[in-house]
Structures are given as structure tokens and as C-alpha cells.
Amino acid sequence: MKATVLGAAGGIGQSLSLLLKINCHLISELSLYDVVNSHGVGADLSHISTNTSISSYLPENDGLQKALCGADFVIIPAGIPRKPGMTRDDLFSFNAKIIASLAEGVARYCPGAFVLVISNPVNSTVPVFAETLKKFGVFNARKLFGVTTLDIVRAKTFIADLTNKKPQSFRVPVIGGHSGATIVPLFSVGAPEAYSSLSYETKSALIHRVQYGGDEVVEAKDGKGSATLSMAYAAYALVNQILTAVTSGLDNEVVSYIYLDDSIKGASELKSKINGLDYFAIPVKLGKEGIEIIDSQILDRIDQAEGDMLEEAIEKLQGDISKGVSFIRGQ
Ligand code: NAI
């Protein structure tokens, strides 16, 4: 497999590339692309004694084309991160342009690749990406993933902290989107016993911490960026699960922010429950060709409070999605 990281010299890009270089034996070539310093990062990583070969590219000399040609996986943390006081939406005007140009590159040079979009605001950059691929007639909803895994990583960590249990003992699905109120952690589904032992106030604080956990990192870094190390870990975990499903056909389940294409089993059923939204973070089963089944039934198992959060998320997501779609359709 060839994997390409776009934005490889950034905080997430460097840490993620390191994890992929040292831990992913399924990746034979790791291709690094950035507008700055990709050769430095590439030279550094290339000295690590694992079998994954490293190549690096800048925009000059058709760098994007070379980085993407033959790629099976494209992982995108390119763009600017938040500073204190900023919401993810504040990043849209800058990052949407970057995502649209990189999507054009994917459409031209590796239209069949699996793509993982990390750049924020994910709720809107994934529609930007999908709409660009549609313009080129190469969109495959089964292979496009908006990365919301960090919300799940945080949900597991935070409830484990509160209940003195191991994070691995929980599988908390976090559905909806990836910003503030659109992040809907389903503790009642993924950690029913531990969650029900908490007081109402502790439950509310836990949910709030998952929804706004990113702010803790932004504040602590004090103007020097947002989550990079935990994000790299989360993206690495998702890449690994998709890689395993694609190469072995194992029906791994992941949660991701995806386009609800009617051709995917469970998509229409889910859409009928979420006011017809076209994009949503939801557990999906994977196979060799990507997303095979959407777990629409998970919504039948949530509690009243989660149902209320879901309603709020749906309303906000509608606007976030339209913003991304009209950015491309309005051009
Ligand atoms: P960073 O600023 O450290 O790195 C971004 C990199 O993108 C830089 O090296 C920059 O040169 C590069 N870049 C800019 N324009 C580019 C282009 N046209 N082509 C290729 N590379 C380009 O930022 P960081 O901290 O790595 O964050 C990256 C993105 O990930 C941000 O948008 C951030 O908000 C997002 N993020 C997403 C999370 C999620 O859960 N999905 C969590 C944390 C951050």
C-alpha cells in the first residue's frame, strides 16, 4: 500500500507520519507532501530502520502529482489549526480553499484512493472534498472518511478517569459531527454501567468535556496550536482499522463522518431519522471496498438526553454541511 500524508510537516502530520513509519507494516511507501519542510521531515523519518520507504514532495516540480500518483490512502491534516478563542468554524474560509485544491489533486491523480480528512472544520471540509470529487465525476462515498476518532478517544479516556477503569474497557460511539454541540457521545450505549453510576452533574460535565475537550488543549498550548499528538494517535488508529479491513476483508467497525449515499446499506434509514442530513458521524462496518453497512439502528438505543443532544446537533450540522456544499457549488 502507498499512503500519502498531505500537510505532513505540521504538528499532526509529523507525529502521524512517525506512527505510520514505525507501526504500519502494511504501508510499503509513505509519501509526504507539504508546502514547507516536507524534505526535512522526510529525511529525518527515512533514517528509521523499518521497511516502509519514505518519499517527500513540495509543490514545485509537480510535487502534489508525484505525491499522490499510485496512492491507496490519502490522509489530510493540511491547513491552519485553532488559536485560543477560535471555533473550528473560524477556520473555514482558509482551510476550505486548501481542501478543495487537494481534493482536485486526488480527483486527478488517485481517484480510487481511500481518503481521511482531518482538517477542520470537518463538518464542512468533508462536504467540500466530496463536492469537488463529484465535480470531477470520481466521488465514491464508501472511501471518504471525516476523522472524528479523537472524540471517541477522549470519551473513553474521560469516563475511564472518572470511574477508575481502563479506557480499553469502553467502546463509546460518538455520533453527529466534530464540533461543540454537534458532538454527541453515546455513553448510555457504549458504557452503560459505568455511566449510570454517575450523578446527573457528573454526566453533564463529562459530556461537555468530550464536546469541548479540544479547547483544553488549545488553551494549554496558548496560541501554539491545537491537539496534535492525541490527534495523530486517533488518526493512526483509524488508518490501521481501515487498512486491516481493506487488506483482510475483516468487517471492522469504525465511527466516521461520512456521506450518506443511498447505495450504502442503512443510509436511507439513517437519513429518515436525522432530518435528511447528507453527512453524519455514525458507526459503519468496513469491507475490502470501504464502507459496507451504516448502523442506523444505534439511534433506537439512545436515551432521552442523548436524543435531545441529537436534535441540537442535527440543526447545527445542517448549516455546516450547506456551507461546505455551497462553497464548491457556488464557484
Ligand atoms: P499545523 O499548522 O501544525 O500543520 C498544518 C500543515 O499544513 C502545515 O505544515 C502547513 O504547511 C500545511 N499546509 C498548509 N497548506 C497546505 C497545502 N495547500 N497543502 C499541503 N499542506 C499544507 O496544524 P495541525 O495542528 O497539524 O492541524 C492541522 C489541521 O487539523 C487543522 O485544520 C486542525 O484544526 C485540524 N485538527 C483536526 C482534528 C480532528 O479531530 N479532526 C483535531 C485537531 C486538529
TrEMBL record:
Matches recorded under InterPro entries: L-lactate/malate_DH, Lactate/malate_DH_C, Lactate/malate_DH_N, Lactate_DH/Glyco_Ohase_4_C, Malate_DH_AS, Malate_DH_type1, NAD(P)-bd_dom_sf
Alphabetic keyword roster: NAD, Oxidoreductase, Tricarboxylic acid cycle
Example of a GO cellular component annotation carried by this entry: cytosol
Top-rank EC class of the record's enzyme: oxidoreductase
A Pfam family assignment: Ldh_1_N
Highest taxon listed in the record's lineage: Eukaryota
CDD domains reported for this sequence: MDH_glyoxysomal_mitochondrial
GO molecular function terms noted in the UniProt entry: L-malate dehydrogenase (NAD+) activity
Lactate/malate dehydrogenase C-terminal domain location: 148-327
Sequence similarity: Belongs to the LDH/MDH superfamily. MDH type 1 family.
PANTHER family membership: MALATE AND LACTATE DEHYDROGENASE, MALATE DEHYDROGENASE, MITOCHONDRIAL
Alphabetical list of NCBIfam families matching this protein: MDH_euk_gproteo (TIGR01772)
Protein's name in the database: Malate dehydrogenase
Lineage, highest ranks first: Eukaryota, Fungi, Dikarya, Ascomycota, Saccharomycotina
